[in-house]
Design a protein that fits this description.
This protein is an alpha+beta fold. It has one domain. It has helices at residues 3-8, 24-35, 53-67, 99-118, 161-170; strands at 38-47, 76-82, 88-93, 122-130, 136-142, 147-151, 153-154, 158-159. A 6-stranded antiparallel beta sheet has the order 2-3-1-4-5-6. It has a two-stranded antiparallel sheet with strand order 7-8. α3 runs antiparallel to α4. It is globular. It starts with a helix and ends in a 23-residue tail after the last helix.
C-alpha cells in the first residue's frame, strides 16, 4: 500500500482468518453470562455456488466428511439449501450445548472450500443464538473481511439495532468485530433464523 492509497483512503483487503471462528465458544459464554443468549445448535455457511463438476464434487466431499460425524449426540446430517437470492447454505445442527462441534463443522466447510480454490465463493458463516424471550441472534463471520458482527432479526424484515450494538460492545474482547457498520448486512432467511 503506497502513500497515494493512504491519502485517498484506499485500504488493503483483510485476509480471511478462519481460526477466528474458534473464538465463538468463548463468545457464547460471554453472550450467555452478559445477555442471556444461548446457542441453538444451528450453524451455517453461505457461498455462491458455481457450475461445474469440480465444485459439485467438493460440495459432496464436504457433506460426506461432516455427515460421517453422526456419532455426536444431537447431530444430524448437513442440510444444503438455496435461498431466494440464489446462494447456497450448508447447515449443521448439533445439541445446543455442543457449540464446539458446531464450530468445528463450520470451520471444516470453510476450510474445504478455501483449500480447493473456492474461497472467493465464500460469503459468510453464522452461528445462531436465542434468549428466554425467544429473541433471535446470529454471530455472522464475514469471510472476505475476517471479522464478525451480530445480526438480530425482528418480524417483518426489521432489525433490533440497539441489541446489535449492545452485543458488539459485549464481544469486543472475544471476537474481531467488524467496525464498519455499513458492512453489517442483513441475512434474511438464513437457516435457523
Amino acid at each position: 500500500m503506497g502513500f497515494l492509497d493512504a491519502l485517498l483512503g484506499r485500504t488493503k483487503p483483510v485476509k480471511p482468518d478462519l481460526d477466528q471462528l474458534f473464538g465463538l465458544p468463548s463468545a457464547a459464554i460471554t453472550l450467555e453470562a452478559a445477555a442471556g443468549f444461548k446457542p441453538t445448535g444451528v450453524g451455517s455457511v453461505c457461498f455462491a455456488a458455481v457450475e461445474g463438476g469440480a465444485f459439485a464434487q467438493i460440495q459432496q466431499d464436504v457433506q460426506a466428511l461432516l455427515d460421517a460425524d453422526t456419532g455426536s449426540e444431537g447431530h444430524v446430517p448437513i442440510e444444503p439449501t438455496r435461498d431466494d437470492y440464489g446462494y447456497t447454505w450448508l447447515t449443521s445442527r448439533h445439541a445446543p450445548d455442543d457449540i464446539v462441534s458446531l464450530v468445528n463443522d463450520v470451520h471444516a466447510v470453510n476450510t474445504a472450500l478455501e483449500s480447493t480454490g473456492f474461497g472467493p465463493q465464500l460469503l459468510c458463516s453464522l452461528v445462531n443464538f436465542t434468549d428466554a424471550q425467544n429473541r433471535k441472534l446470529a454471530l455472522v463471520y464475514l469471510y472476505k473481511r475476517g471479522s464478525f458482527y451480530p445480526f438480530a432479526p425482528l418480524r417483518g424484515e426489521k432489525r433490533d439495532n440497539p441489541l446489535e450494538i449492545q452485543i458488539k460492545a459485549m464481544l469486543g474482547n472475544d471476537l474481531r468485530i467488524e467496525q464498519e457498520l455499513t458492512r453489517w448486512f442483513p441475512v434474511w432467511g438464513a437457516p435457523g433464523l
